[in-house]
Each structure stands twice: as C-alpha cells, then as structure tokens.
Design goal:
mainly alpha; about 350 residues; single chain; two-stranded antiparallel ribbon; 21 helices
C-alpha cells in the first residue's frame, strides 16, 4: 500500500505544479495551459507503477496468455477480442517477456487518460488524483482489455461534444475489437447528447427503478438473449450467485450526480456541453445500483465511471464561490484518499508489489 500511496501523492504533487507553472490559454476550459513537463513526470510515476506491477488481480492471467499466444497468428482467431489478440502478437515480435504486455497496455491506457485530462479537466491535478482514488486506476490494471476500450472512448469524447457521430461510431467499433461490450456506447451516444435532467432523464430513471425491482425476473430473458456469446458464462454466474458490489461504492458513485443536480443551472452557465458528462454520470450511477445484485454488471460502468474524473473538478472549481470551492477541494482530497485506502486494503485485499 505504501507504493500506491507514494504514487498517489507524488503524481498529485507534480500535477499541482503543472497548474502552478501554467500559462494563459483562452481555448481551454480551465483558461490555463498546464506545464507539460510536470504532467509528464506525473504520467511517468503512474505508468511506472502500473507497468511493473506483480500479480495484481488478473495481471498474471494476461501475462500467461501473452506467452501462450506468442507470434502465432492462428491463435489470434481464438481470442475473444480480435484487436487485443493482434496487439499481443505484435508485441511478441518486440519481446516475448511476459511483462511486455503489462508495460505496453499501461503506457497506452495512461496516454489516452492523461491526454484527455490535459484537454478537458478543470484542474488536472484533481483529475489525476480522482483517476487513482475513484477506482479507475485499479480497474485499468484488472480488466485490461475492457479498460483499453474505455480509455479509447474516453479520449474520443471530443467527437461526442462536437457531434461527429460517424467518426465516433468508428472509434467505438475500434474499441470493440479490444472488448466487445464497448458496442454499447453507440446507442449511449443518443442518450448523453440530450439535455440533462430533462424528461428523457426522468423516463430513464423510472425505467431503471422498474427494472431494478423486477431484476430477478429479467435474468432468464437476458441469459437467453446472450446464449452462445462470450458473456454467457458471466450471465450464468449472475443468475446463480449473489455477489453484488459494496454499498459504499454505490454511494461514492452517487456523489457527482448529487453535486451535478444541485448545481445544474450553474453548470449550464459554465459550459453548455456539461450535459454530456452529467448524463454519463447518471448512467454510471444507474449501472452501479444494478450492480448491487452482482459485480459482473459493474463491468459495464468502465465506460461511464471514468468521466466522473472530469465532471467532479468542473463542479468543484466553477460552480461554487471561492471559499466553498476550496473547502470542497480539500474535502475531496481527504475523503477520496480514505476511500482509495479502503478499496485497496479491504475490498481488493491485495498487498501491491512491483516486480523489482
């Protein structure tokens, strides 16, 4: 845990310095151009810890698959997700050391995340901090294939903001080659482009409540629809087990939604495109509520949860007076650090180690 806490505070520190030594930028939401040197240092710290981790959750499984596939293109066809299979074969030409796949994917994911934070985060040090403490960093080291897909879509948020749906759909299809579940983000496009807290949000909430109350009745139907797909085993597990996510996680995911509703008028004044991020956060909360039935459902939240690291700083920095904003900033720092410690120590229950 000492490694993770050291990474957290040092990456935050350099992110903070990137804001201190920033220059004016009228084209940025934060009106600043953050110092790239300090952002790079923060990136290196986070990426190094992720890249050289040892046996964190599914890390060992990915290392094993990487060695087994080697440079055999025939084995690519046997992989659930073609894009990830191609990536593993290409990396094997560079090095067949099992840590290669972990290093490469860590670099790829963090480049996509940090690039998006640089462009759209109101305070980049807070965005980096939340990326680690809200659980996104842990997810990026656990479900690697799916988080690559989520990071690609996260980086493509510019296309959603600008309404470039054709290019966005192409990016989603590309992401789906790493994890097929990414295809869900195509219909989501039409939901998140609507005005937040409108009648569509109300209908979605009502349908979600009804779905939650009748969830046990829906499981057999969902299982029949997904029969024969790569998710069949997960759905069978969903029907047979009772292993929902921790209720604390659900409350944590509710925080940005509550803040966004509280300051909904001010958010519109600050940035009229904020509706996209609010809608993503609402969808994320709905999924997490359903995940109380089974943790498998929370896997879908990969594509939504990460956008909270943009929404929370936006609300804290621009939607309150200076005194309240400062209070919320430090409260966020303390509370999310506590949640991060709780999640890693008591939920994952893993003694994090590096390979050296």
């Amino acid at each position: 845990m000492m490694i993770l806490l050291s990474m957290l505070f040092s990456s935050y520190f350099f992110g903070y310095l990137s804001d201190v030594y920033s220059s004016p930028n009228t084209n940025s939401l934060s009106k600043k151009r953050n110092n790239l040197l300090f952002i790079a240092l923060s990136f290196v710290i986070v990426t190094t810890v992720a890249a050289f981790r040892q046996s964190f959750v599914d890390t060992g499984t990915y290392r094993k698959i990487f060695v087994e596939i080697g440079t055999d293109w025939n084995l690519v066809q046997e992989q659930k997700d073609f894009g990830f299979g191609v990536l593993m074969v290409l990396l094997n030409y560079v090095s067949n050391h099992p840590q290669t796949i972990i290093i490469a994917t860590s670099i790829l994911i963090n480049i996509l995340v940090f690039r998006t934070l640089y462009k759209y985060c109101a305070r980049i040090e807070l965005g980096i901090f939340l990326f680690i403490t809200t659980g996104c960093f842990a997810l990026s080291m656990n479900g690697i294939r799916q988080f690559i897909a989520a990071a690609i879509i996260f980086c493509a948020i510019k296309l959603v903001i600008e309404g470039k749906w054709k290019l966005y759909f192409f990016v989603v299809l590309l992401a789906a080659t790493f994890h097929g579940s990414a295809i869900i983000m195509i219909p989501v496009y039409f939901i998140i482009r609507r005005k937040a807290w409108s009648w569509s949000t109300f209908i979605l909430t009502v349908c979600s409540i009804l779905g939650y109350l009748s969830f046990n009745l829906l499981i057999p139907f969902i299982s029949n629809v997904m029969a024969g797909t790569q998710y069949e085993n997960n759905l069978n597990y969903l029907a047979e087990k009772d292993s929902g996510v921790n209720i604390i996680r659900i409350f944590v995911h509710a925080v940005p939604v509550i803040l966004a509703f509280w300051k909904r008028k001010r958010l519109q004044e600050v940035w009229n495109k904020s509706d996209i991020f609010v809608n993503l956060s609402v969808l994320n909360l709905i999924i997490m509520v359903f995940s109380y039935y089974s943790w498998i459902i929370s896997r879908i939240a990969f594509y939504f949860q990460i956008f909270n690291i943009l929404l929370i700083p936006l609300i804290i920095i621009f939607c309150f007076d200076k005194k309240t904003s400062l209070f919320l900033y430090y409260s966020c720092f303390v509370l999310y650090t506590g949640y991060f410690y709780y999640e890693m120590v008591y939920m994952f229950k893993i003694d994090f180690k590096l390979i050296f």
